[in-house]
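Hi both,

Apologies for the delay on this - the queue was longer than expected. I finally got the magnesium ion-bound model through. Below you'll find the protein sequence and the ligand SMILES exactly as submitted, and right after that the structure tokens for the full complex including the ligand.
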Amino acid sequence: MSNPSLLILAGDGIGPEVMNEVKKIIGWYGDKRDLAFDVEDDLVGGAAFDAHGTPLTDATMEKAQNADAVLLGAVGGPKYDTLDFSQKPERGLLRLRKEMDLFSNLRPAQCFDALADFSSLKRDVVAGLDIMIVRELTSGVYFGEPRGIHKEGNERVGVNTQRYTESEIARVARSAFELARRRNNKVCSMEKANVMESGVLWRQVVTEIHEAEYADVELSHMYADAGAMQLCRWPKQFDVIVTDNLFGDLLSDAAAMLTGSLGMLPSASLGAPMANGRPKALYEPVHGSAPDIAGQGKANPIACILSFAMALRYSFDQAAEAERLEKAVEKVLADGKRTADLLGPEGGTPISTAEMGDAIVEALDASL
Amino acid sequence: MSNPSLLILAGDGIGPEVMNEVKKIIGWYGDKRDLAFDVEDDLVGGAAFDAHGTPLTDATMEKAQNADAVLLGAVGGPKYDTLDFSQKPERGLLRLRKEMDLFSNLRPAQCFDALADFSSLKRDVVAGLDIMIVRELTSGVYFGEPRGIHKEGNERVGVNTQRYTESEIARVARSAFELARRRNNKVCSMEKANVMESGVLWRQVVTEIHEAEYADVELSHMYADAGAMQLCRWPKQFDVIVTDNLFGDLLSDAAAMLTGSLGMLPSASLGAPMANGRPKALYEPVHGSAPDIAGQGKANPIACILSFAMALRYSFDQAAEAERLEKAVEKVLADGKRTADLLGPEGGTPISTAEMGDAIVEALDASL
Ligand SMILES: [Mg+2]
Ligand SMILES: [Mg+2]
């Protein structure tokens, strides 16, 4: 049997630096855990534009479709701000999401004990937090037709359409229920069924899928505004939250900020199962390309490393190894190792991007 | 000159109790500040249904249209849960909002120093917070057509339409700029112009109104997901936030929860100026009718009293008197007076609804 394949698209800014540290981790799993991957590198975003005049070539798109998982660093930078809309670095990422049909966006909101003081929330509200927001990523009001700005009489009118089909809701609901079974078996579905028919359908379909296929999972429903409140009040009440594209956009970002560790958070975007049973999958840190610190060895590689941990868990069914990696990160933080972004007001001496990667590899060694 | 008129719709549950305390305050302003109001009482919600078989009679609607301001307590209760949709207590409130065309919903998020420990946020993040969220209340995706659930082939499809006209955006933008001039002169407008054309138009119109009429006010723009993050991280960066109906729904509730004083918060819903120059206006606490504690003298009247303070400021141009009332509330809290809902984990002896009203009247006396 051949090794599973990874396509690495390091991208722009700090992307290549943090991805270098991920490669150390990948190498470690091949050497020490007999978990070798066939790794291929390619370009995305500004880097692809510089080389090929497009933020994602057809050849790269083809490779992404055939890889067992795609790891992405970050895209974008001031150098590309004046490019035409269709050539902007972000279009490369959007093309990947669209053509791979990655409808289920997994956004963990986790708070490492060692970093709990970074949160604007009180320590007991946030320490040890571990929830997962599943955001529908390919439909809803950001994509629905009709859309646009037109004239009615003397007035401009702006229109967007929130539109969800039964099957679009069903597939992301299944994704959330599957996740819950691997976690604490609880799903809270959020919409505005009190004022939106698309929310009424959302609630109906989630309820139907639950009754027919996932009755063992605990399901609750909450209006999205109440959900925003409850996330701010006591986020630990949740396990998995499933919601639509727009609500998920706001709620996942709010939850991420609540952890105080925005720069530490990974994400996964999953699609339908491929012939080998693995879902189409793209893993990337939530943070951006941070062009201001690129190339200086200051970047924090943890979000990208934790994205690889998600790949271990969700693409390669290696939950125990994913946990080993997450625990290694936790240990390094508990030991007081900090990249520059993690130094609090009391200061201290930061370690470099590479030193952080090495420390995590050391912690992995120590775990054996 | 006749006195300004107030229509009081106390409603259901704790509504009548808390409104009794507001009446003490109104009486005080007539006696001690030569600010007399012509007060009329009427019914709304379940109380109106019990008396007339409808949650709002045409006669009451007519009075509301002609009053200088409407003060509302709260509507709803388990007794009315089985009523037909059109007869539910909430429909009375929705009819008022719709027929008075109250497009600008003012939701202050304030945190009293004495209550800062109730927040899930750290004390320094939230103590003394005073921001104002202006939510467009009569248009957007909760109202746009087409809407509904229909079949396409074998599938159900749920549709809602986000739709904003130039004039709908312009009038709520003006409302926010006017407010900012009475506060700290800063407006932040939030939308998703990066992915929604209705957001593009929102940003354009807000910018045009700013340049043409309010160039003296500081204006910034933020994507609504970043706005949700920033509200959680450092809410004191904002003064006035203006946003659409849906984003405002989530952001105002999240901000309210962040203060930790959800039961303390007032609101105003304003429409176009009437012949006398005053805006159509309805003032109400953010909290609900709390049927579980109704009639027991346990309710906290402060949110309703602060709603009257908003009426003083926004309907009757009595900013100094509004501030006097707010300071009186602050003093009573600083003195340690607490209704049952404000007792922390350390306990203490609660005072009754009436005792809280009396204490605030006393503090008003002391302010003279
Ligand atoms: Mg977002
Ligand atoms: Mg709401």
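Main takeaway for now: The pocket of magnesium ion (ligand 2) is lined by residues A 225; B 249, 253 (CB under 6 Å).

I'll put the files on the shared drive as well.

H.
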